[in-house]
Write a structure and sequence with these properties.
heterotrimer, A mainly alpha, B mainly alpha, C mainly alpha, A: mainly alpha, 3 helices, flat, B: Cytochrome C Oxidase, Chain A, 18 helices, 63% helix
């Protein structure tokens, strides 16, 4: 396929970044940050890690934009659903 | 398998009977398998409807012809309360998941999508076969659940916990577990089917077939497939939690141990409302195919219909809580969901207006498919308009869970499944079986069905407005409901007539399959690609791979001698 | 699957049908895990204090090691894909084998973890947090098992040489699935192991 024509990401470097980010999120837990900082930090790190995997390992950037839609639309619906349920499940028990 | 795409009619003869008709890879055979499964399950669902209608008209009296059902399910034809709960639950489950979906998506989707996009078969023929045998297994599990100790599921087709979470409340243990398993397999089956439809349409269209030249039936099928695929996931997750609550003893939905039964309702309706459109859209699609052909006019507002469908599909994801206005959910959610619910009527109004405008000044031929298409339109308008009352929270608080709701959703779902399904059946029968159905009997079937259907459900609107709740075993134990017995007896007689009115169809269907007039390729003078293939199409579909030069609805073009312009002919 | 090859010329489109199918499959999987993760987040927000107490008892160490294991097997998977593209059959075989080993290692660690927890009385019935913990990691584990089986099949085909000449694209499709399982774990790890 034409994929070979694209410049391949340095997979090992991406892996090193992923492990580094894992260490950051572990550090965030063990260092004396406030709870808000810790929680936001670990989930931002998780999102960045997921982004790195999807972009570099799953090669989503080289795909047709339909694939981008297929990947993003479910995430949007997931967020809508979870947000809409917050008043009900979280505050109203 | 390797040559399934190679369009050799002779190849068919080399396959054994089992490979050709039972474990077939041919999308048309699989479509027919879905059709027969759906028709068989419709008999089961219809039998349950007969039982529950009888109980509502003449409570606790012996149901005629049903004394053969052994104890403890029934007592000499008398329905005990536990079995009544199972009847209403399984009637809903079977009709939605094992009749509507197999027929509209499974049968017609499978049969038509590859033909309409000019492909030799589905993208993944083996996955297609697997999806049929998965739903077949699911259907058998559902039917088998009637015979386990305790009987079939009886927590309502929505399966709300705590009723569904613990056998203490219903006395049904195995039945509900099997019900969850059957549903899970059904979902898996339609996920496989949906992946197949979407991939086929995206990647296997004939040369020249742009997305905006797709027949509307294909658009409806793929929007339905996307909606299903994106909405069913949370319910699968929810069903896993429910199953664990039942079998392992976890407490996801048990309030006393920190769970929350409302979560199930949210997850269920996050799927349940889009599911309505999954079932509805293919029925609308069949009508949209039939209207231009039988009024010899281009469809009015093709693009508007496509965009409205996509908009309706998106909106269907953010309306679900209107099923839960009285569930005790947070009041701040009520108003937004009321607004989105009323909003969703806008795209559907556009679609309905486009349908009516297509008829305007057309040269209308009232053949049976056209009659059923017009019937769908009429019935769906009633269903849609009554939905507006239920969408606004203030009215819904009074009407919730009354027979008004029952009548409303039968008007919407029966318009799509029953009338839409028969539209598709009469219209594509020549392509499926190579013979035409008898027109006279078709018209008789239509007239009886339309009249009887309305006679069944109009009284139920009145009963609901009178405050009668659904799912009551014997409503007439309440003094204020005693005057409703006449309404129910009327509806029950009409329902029995409606079932008898299906006999002409069944006879016509099987007689025409073998003895009907032989159909040529294009008996209705229609444009779409399926009519370019032989009737019935062989394995591999087309003699030569078609190319597409026009949109699907070029009718009565002034520069042409004929009043139709097939998509695959350049001029 | 030479049906694929025979029908490709019908399409005026952009990608092989196998890849298209896998992406649609992943979309539905996002919603399945999304429903589960969403429910977990909501319950967690609703009862923060009691759950944080329970969440203290999971082994962050094993969770972190398992994250590294899964990330590494994702790396070997993508290297296997690269080797397939380069027609380097020996390396493809090696990396597929390593990916399978990574998956098995993950399951072994997971089993150790489950055993420790259950022997300390933290069964799925020990509270809603534990119910969620076992459901989510269990469902993820089932996906890992599925990925191991698929990768093992590819490894056997690569070892026998039957992966070539026309089925090597399966490595890419299987890889997409395997990376997705990895992404799910990337989110499960902070949700279950870190946020107390």
């Amino acid at each position: 396929m034409s994929n070979t024509a694209h410049a391949r990401p340095n997979y090992v470097a991406v892996w090193a970044w992923l492990v580094f980010l894992l260490i950051i999120s572990l550090a965030a837990v063990y260092l004396p940050f406030s709870q808000t900082v810790t929680v936001s930090l670990i989930f931002v790190v998780a999102a960045v890690k997921a982004f790195l995997v999807v972009v570099n390992f799953m090669h989503i950037r080289m795909e047709h934009r339909l694939v981008h839609l297929i990947a993003i639309v479910p995430v949007i619906f997931f967020i809508i659903m979870t947000m809409a349920l917050i008043p009900d499940i979280v505050y109203n028990r | 398998m390797s040559s399934s795409a190679a369009a050799h009619p002779a190849h068919e003869n080399q396959l054994s009977f089992v490979r050709q008709y039972i474990f077939s890879l041919d999308h048309k055979v699989i479509g027919k398998q879905y059709l027969f499964l759906g028709m068989f399950m419709a008999l089961a669902g219809g039998l349950l409807a007969y039982l529950l209608r009888w109980q509502l008209a003449w409570p606790e009296s012996a149901v005629p012809g049903m004394s053969w059902i052994p104890e403890p399910t029934m007592f000499q034809g008398i329905i005990p309360p536990e079995f009544y709960n199972a009847i209403v639950t399984m009637h809903g489950t079977i009709m939605v998941f094992f009749v509507a979906m197999p027929i509209l998506l499974g049968a017609f989707g499978n049969f038509l999508v590859p033909l309409m996009v000019g492909a030799p078969d589905m993208a993944f023929p083996r996955l297609n076969m697997m999806s049929f045998w998965t739903i077949f297994t699911a259907a058998m599990i559902m039917l088998a659940s009637f015979f386990v100790p305790g009987g079939a599921a009886s927590a309502g087709w929505t399966g709300y916990p705590p009723l569904s979470a613990d056998a203490v409340y219903t006395g049904v243990n195995w039945g509900i577990t099997l019900w969850i398993l059957g549903l899970a397999l059904e979902f898996a089956s339609f996920l496989m089917g949906g992946i197949n439809f979407l991939t086929t349409v995206v990647s296997m269209r004939a040369p020249g077939l742009k997305m905006m030249r797709l027949p509307l039936m294909v658009w409806m099928q793929i929007v339905a497939a996307v909606i299903f695929m994106l909405s069913v996931g949370p319910l699968i997750a929810g069903a896993v939690l429910l199953l664990l609550d039942r079998t392992v003893g976890t407490s996801f939905y048990a309030v006393q141990k920190g769970g929350d039964p409302l979560l199930w309702q949210h997850l269920f309706w996050f799927f349940g409302h889009p599911e309505v459109y999954v079932v509805l859209l293919p029925g609308i699609g069949a009508v949209l195919e039939v209207l231009p052909v039988f009024s010899r006019k281009p469809i009015f507002g093709y693009k508007a219909i496509v965009y409205s469908t996509i908009a309706a599909g998106f909106l269907s994801f953010i309306v679900w809580a209107h099923h839960m206005f009285v569930s005790g959910m947070d009041f701040d959610l009520v108003m937004p969901f009321s607004i989105t619910t009323i909003l969703i009527s806008v795209p559907f109004t556009i679609i309905l207006l486009a349908m009516i405008a297509t008829l305007w000044k057309g040269a209308i031929r009232l053949a049976t498919p056209m009659l059923f298409a017009l019937g769908t339109l009429m019935v769906f308008i009633v269903g849609g308009l009554t939905g507006i009352f239920l969408g606004s929270a203030s009215a819904d608080i009074y009407l919730h869970d009354t027979y008004f709701v029952v009548a409303h959703f039968h008007y919407t779902l029966i318009s799509a499944v029953f009338f839409g399904g028969f539209t598709a059946m009469y219209y594509w029968f020549p392509k499926m079986f190579g013979r035409l159905m008898n027109e006279t009997w078709g018209k008789i079937h239509f007239a009886l069905t339309l009249v009887c259907f309305n006679l069944v459900f109009i009284p139920l609107f009145k009963a609901g407005l009178g405050g009668e709740m659904r799912r009551l075993y014997n409503p007439f134990e309440y003094d204020f409901l005693k005057p409703h017995q006449g309404l129910h007896q009327f509806a029950t007689i009409a329902a029995i007539l409606l079932m008898i009115a299906q006999l002409p169809f069944l006879v016509n269907f099987f007689w025409s399959m073998f003895k009907g007039k032989v159909a040529d390729r294009n008996p209705w003078q229609a444009n779409t690609l399926e009519w370019a293939a032989p009737s019935p199409p062989p394995h591999g579909n087309f003699d030569t791979a078609p190319s597409v030069y026009h949109g699907p609805y070029v009718y009565s073009a002034p520069e042409r001698k004929e009043d139709w312009q097939p998509q695959h002919q350049p001029h | 699957m030479s049906t694929v090859a025979a029908t490709e010329n019908y399409s005026d489109n952009v990608m092989p049908i196998g890849k298209m199918g896998i992406w649609w499959f992943l979309a539905s999987e996002i919603m399945v895990f999304g429903g589960l993760i969403g429910s977990y987040i909501l319950y967690r927000l609703a009862s923060a204090g009691a759950w944080a107490e329970m969440a203290h008892h999971v082994s962050t160490t094993i969770g972190a090691i398992n994250t590294v294991v899964l990330l590494t097997s994702s790396l070997t998977m993508v290297l296997a894909h690269a080797a397939v593209e380069d027609e380097n059959r020996q390396r493809a075989k090696l990396y597929l084998g390593l990916t399978v080993l990574g998956g098995i290692l993950f399951l072994i660690f997971k089993a150790v973890e489950y055993t420790t927890e259950i022997s300390h009385g933290f069964t799925p019935l020990a509270g809603t947090f534990w119910s969620f913990y076992f459901t989510m990691t269990g469902l993820h584990g089932l996906h890992v098992i599925g990925g191991i089986i698929a990768n093992l099949a590819l490894f056997v085909m690569a070892a026998r040489g039957t992966l070539w000449p026309n089925t090597q694209k399966r490595v890419e499709y299987c890889g997409l699935y395997w990376h997705f399982v990895d992404v799910v774990w990337i989110f499960l790890f902070p949700l279950l192991y870190l946020s107390y």
